[in-house]
Amino acid sequence: DALSTLQRWQEDQPDLIILDINLPGTTQLKDGFAICQHIRSQSDVHIILLTVRGEENDIVRGLEAGADDYVLKPFSPRQLVARVQAVMRRGRSGEAASPLAIFSIDGLHFNPKIREVSLSNGQTKSLTSLESRLLEYLMLNAGHILTTDDLISDVWGASGGNSEMLRQLVKRLRAKIEEDPTKPFYIENLPGLGYAFRLKR
Amino acid sequence: DALSTLQRWQEDQPDLIILDINLPGTTQLKDGFAICQHIRSQSDVHIILLTVRGEENDIVRGLEAGADDYVLKPFSPRQLVARVQAVMRRGRSGEAASPLAIFSIDGLHFNPKIREVSLSNGQTKSLTSLESRLLEYLMLNAGHILTTDDLISDVWGASGGNSEMLRQLVKRLRAKIEEDPTKPFYIENLPGLGYAFRLKR
DNA sequence: ACATCCTGTCACAGGTTTGTCACAAGCTTA
DNA sequence: TAAGCTTGTGACAAACCTGTGACAGGATGT
């Protein structure tokens, strides 16, 4: 849990920390991100996050909080070992910039920090808060199908949001980033499943 | 033993290897880890290690040598089956895909994730939700007879569904995947019993 | 106060998917 | 041969999904 994590970290002085974002017993102040940030502020230790698939925007928060890498649950032990080795390999000073500063896929560039997309035709548009959240989630999982529920809970959180609002949001986002919104290129619909950011093949 | 393991691996090209670390007859050069590493260096096949409880740091060595997962002896058959399914489920790359990545039987390729089949003649068709469920269940149990009731309860759940709906669904699925729906090749009917996905012999 | 933007809600259109009905063909059994 | 059962099939209707336009309330800035 949160407290003993910090204690043990100070006692053991490990080279690497694998940190589950969903720490049990985290009180109001100390969630996984806060811990990550706290540790990072005092040390250069390597930190790898464990995140549940479906909550990928935790990743963004985690990397911003100073994590070196992340692994999605469920993961294969082999994958975890590989990530650990990779993180250890790049020295502490490894200038592994947050890889998610800017998304660039298929001529679409998106900077979630300032909520701006630049299209392949040179145009630049600024997105609203919700549109940005949606696009970030989609591009983070480019090529994977995201169910309607996933998207809703990511954009609006566990409580709010419904499929009607999502449809409307998709429409508005497409109006901004698609060349021809009636024939979407980037944001693909999989009937009965959800949406996906399409990867060229 | 070590040598025949490598031989059979090359001959059989299995999808999954369950490897006991304590191989008998391992000479100085070839212990279980070396075998694991050797196989991994040449293939992406899934590897599950069997390790005796009490030597848990074998696990670390094994995972470093490229294994996907491990099972401690003594284990229950049920646990082993669960691990195998989990390993098979997540693709080779370590990405976790929930259903089996792709079924390929007798020239029929089926990706349940995106609900798409590609036929031997090169055509690809997308299936509806129910069609996909049915085909997945059939291919998962290819070569085994599935009773009408089994199929109904798998596709529609415990409550809904009846044999009429199943017949209709089978018809629609056959129309999409069979070359000649009047003479089905893949989906075979066993009068009075149910259906089966036919395996070539 | 006013205009503007963002967001949620309603209503509807078009397409697809699914359930239902009726019936034909094949096999089994009396 | 005649029921009786099972399986395959066509047609149709209901339900569902997705996209869209219009509109209203709230926030924000002038």
Largest interface in this structure: A-B, 16 and 17 residues
Give the helix level of chain A as a range of percent. Answer: 25-40%
How many H/I helical runs of chain A?
7
Mean pLDDT of chain A: 76
Oligomer: homodimer
Strand content range of chain A: 15-25%
Low-confidence stretches of chain A: 92-100
Question: What's the overall geometry of chain A?
Answer: elongated
- Count of strand segments of chain A: 10
Cross-sheet strand order for the largest sheet of chain A: 4-5-6-7
- String of helices and strands of chain A: HEHEHEHEEEEHEHHEE
Terminal residue distance of chain A: 44 Å
The major beta sheet of chain A can be summarized as: 4 strands, antiparallel
Calculate Rg of chain A over CA atoms.
19 Å
Structural class estimated from helices and strands of chain A: alpha+beta
Structure summary:
The structure is a homodimer of 201-residue chains. Chain A is an alpha+beta fold and 201 residues long.
Task: Describe this structure as you would to a colleague.
2 copies of one chain form a homodimer. By secondary structure, chain A is an alpha+beta fold. Chain A contains 7 helices and 10 strands. In chain A, the strands form 3 sheets. Chain A has a 4-stranded antiparallel β-sheet, with helices on one face. In chain A, helix 3 (57-64) links the parallel strand 2 and strand 3 (69-73). In chain A, helix 5 crosses helix 6 (148-156) and helix 5 (129-140) packs across helix 7 (163-177). The first copy, chain A, is elongated and about 60 Å long. Chains A and B meet through helix 4 of A and loops of B. Chain B binds a DNA duplex (30 and 30 nucleotides) through helix 5 and helix 7.
